[in-house]
Amino acid sequence: MSYIMVIAPLSANMLSKIAGGLCDNLLTCVVRAWDYSKPMFVAPPVSKRLACGDYGNGAMTEPSLIHSTVRLFLESWPQPSD
C-alpha cells in the first residue's frame, strides 16, 4: 500500500491533464485513483544553467532536495496504521 506519491518532474502538460481529470496514460490514471487523504508531492521543472552556459526551463529539481523535502514533511505526518 502506498502512503505518499511523488511526481518529479511534473510538466505543465501533465499538470493540465491532472487538473482537468484527463486519464490518457498510466500516471494520470494512478493520480485519478489516488486517495487524496494521503499526501502527494509534485516537483515542477525549474530554470537551470545548462552545460552550454545558457539558462533553460525544464530541468528536474535535484533528487536530494526532493527527498529531503518529502522526508521533512513525513517526520511531522502521523504514520498510518494498517
TrEMBL record:
Gene3D superfamilies: Flavin prenyltransferase-like. Pfam families: Flavoprotein. Its cofactor is FMN. Pathway: Cofactor biosynthesis; coenzyme A biosynthesis; CoA from (R)-pantothenate: step 3/5. InterPro entries: Flavin_trans-like, Flavoprotein. Keywords: Coenzyme A biosynthesis, Decarboxylase, Flavoprotein, FMN, Growth regulation, Lyase. GO terms for biological process: coenzyme A biosynthetic process. Its EC number is 4.1.1.36. It is an enzyme of class 4 (lyase). Residues 4-32 form the Flavoprotein domain. The keyword Mitochondrion does not apply. GO terms for molecular function: FMN binding; phosphopantothenoylcysteine decarboxylase activity. One of its GO terms (cellular component) is phosphopantothenoylcysteine decarboxylase complex. Coiled coil: none annotated. Belongs to the HFCD (homooligomeric flavin containing Cys decarboxylase) superfamily. This is phosphopantothenoylcysteine decarboxylase. It comes from Hibiscus syriacus (Rose of Sharon).
